[in-house]
Amino acid sequence: MNLSEVLERINSLGGRFVIAIDEAQYLRFSSARYAELIAWATDELENVSFILTGSEVGLLEDFLRIHDPESALFGRAHVEIKLKRFERRQSLDFLRKGFDEIGLEVRAEELEEAVDELDGIVGWLTLYGYNRYLGLSHREALKKLKEDAKRLVVSEFSKLKELSPRYELAMKAVANGRHRWREIKEAVELLEGKKIDDKNFSNVLNNLVRYGYLEKTVEGYFIPDPLVELAFK
Length: 233
Fold this sequence. Notes:
The protein has helices at 3-12, 34-44, 57-64, 88-101, 108-118, 122-133, 138-163, 166-175, 181-192, 198-210, 226-232, and strands at residues 17-21, 48-52, 215-217, 220-222. It is mostly helical.
């Protein structure tokens, strides 16, 4: 039974079914035509809906191509929700309410330090809370989170690294204090041992910004996620 037949069987059961796919951007690396399958199901199966989530927004958009007239998903009804990192007050409130729900008392100074370390990244705050729920101390929870985050970042970045090793070199340069376009390029050239065309290098930085790994400000390029920055140092 292929996937379209599975979806038809689910649709025939009656009721409403929601199929959620986490980190859906990785579907783009499959040989299966998932975008076409989702478009077909959206048109033909009235009881089936999809929720696609992803931490790498640029890659997810590359896969879906919802606004591309040549994409199978173009013109299909959809809702886009983009989560921004929490402000400091929201982060503290998020942790407090979470710990209240599980009946765990956590000192205010520990909450403050966790927010200082994790900077409003919802996923990291959640994992910190989960580590405390498992019985780890504040220090142990942060240490385990940083170790797990490094492995996760390296794993998720591997696909981009396969496209060009310059992506990793650029990230390492920024993580180690190079923030201006010229100084990042010089650092990557030093590591590569050769000159790089300006346009090609701009494409590297632009893609890293688009994929959410870098953030461009008037002061230069920065890594918005503190644990991603830690992973590349």
